[in-house]
Amino acid sequence: MSAHYSPFEPPRRILMGPGPSGVSARVLLAMARPTVGHLDPDFLELMDEVAAQLREIFGTENRLTVPISGTGSAGMETAFVNLLEPGDCAIIGVNGVFGQRMKDVAERAGARVVAVEAAWGEPLDVRRLINAHKANPRARLLAVVHAETSTGVQQPLDELAGYLRGTGTLFLVDTVTSLGGVPVNVDAWGIDVAYSGTQKCLSVPPGLAPITLSERAVERVRSRSGKVQSWYLDLSMISAYWGSERVYHHTAPINALYGLHEGLCAILEEGLEARYERHRRWGGLLQRSLMERGLELLVEEPYRLPQLTSVRVPAGVDDKRFRRALLERYGIEIGGGLGPLAGKVWRIGLMGETCREQSVMLFLSALDELVEGRG
Ligand SMILES: Cc1ncc(COP(=O)(O)O)c(C=O)c1O
């Protein structure tokens, strides 16, 4: 006898963690539209629009700008496996979980990794990265995380980009948590490769990883001596489907792409500057309000991300019990600390759709009730 299964009715949550963020009804409805074929002429038009929208949001004219089928980690893996060949040197900044993940992925691709570390909660020292490059001038790439989601640090990119421009080393930037929340200007800053994820400041469900490659990065992929070891993430084949040839590679996640298209329409309607300002405004309000309550933020200015705030768990408060009560009584999800910060910080996201005054006020009321017993 087979078991009886009923439809899953997800609880209503306010997603104020490190991602996923809230998704608008508009995007969810777009995803419920009829599925068409992945080579349907109307769908091919939608793909072209998505690529054009992504170029606007990344601030680039790069031809090779596509959403990879997979989450942000698939974007990361795509970048490293296409650009690196066994024995290549990669300089990687590590000041949190995602810098560590980049190092792991690069090593699995056979690279010799020179890691430049900084304490979790602090930015990478640009001088040290530049010195690592001077010691390894033939490095294939230098990679940093723009918005380190495990800590809430925003990494300054301009000096590094300026330095690398005059070298043969590619500049690779993880923009998973930054894209759509703080400015990302791929062309103006001279970034060669940037990848992102849909579920943070783009406010689209997880499942796609936008990526963009400069001409010199594309040239690097073209001039590889061996095949990319991942068939699925091989950009030469993926770009043959997204480009004018339209060669089948894998079946595109059709409805996920409807969602991305709708989410990007909403972002461009709002306007990028207005969106960044909204993140600055409500992220700033949250951070000031936490400090006014005597709580300690992990990251110093000017490195604090507005869309992700790490705050130390106040003395005498049980981290897990607090987060459970927040979820059960108020429907609010926030993140706990990772790695050395486990049990020590909360990570509060105000990303995309969730970045509203209402979210800040609701969280602060819940915090006051739960921590200060004012309720
Ligand atoms: C900075 C950063 N890079 C990469 C990833 C990996 O993305 P995903 O979990 O979507 O695979 C994340 C996810 O949180 C992230 O925050």
Structural commentary:
There is one protein chain. By secondary structure, the chain is α/β, with parallel strands linked by helices. The protein has 2 domains: 106 residues, Aspartate Aminotransferase, domain 1 (Alpha-Beta Complex); 244 residues, Type I PLP-dependent aspartate aminotransferase-like (Major domain) (Aspartate Aminotransferase, domain 2, 3-Layer(aba) Sandwich), CATH 3.40.640.10. Helix content is 41%, strand content 15%. It is built from 13 helices and 14 strands. Strand 13 and strand 14 form a beta hairpin. Helix 2 packs across helix 10 and helix 12 packs across helix 13. The longest helix has 21 residues. The protein is globular. The termini are far apart. The mean pLDDT is 97. The protein binds pyridoxal-5'-phosphate. Pyridoxal-5'-phosphate (PLP) binds next to helix 3. The site of pyridoxal-5'-phosphate has 14 residues, from helix 3.
Q: What's a concise summary of this model?
A:
The protein has 375 residues and is α/β, with parallel strands linked by helices. The protein is built from 13 helices and 14 strands. The site of pyridoxal-5'-phosphate has 14 residues, from helix 3.
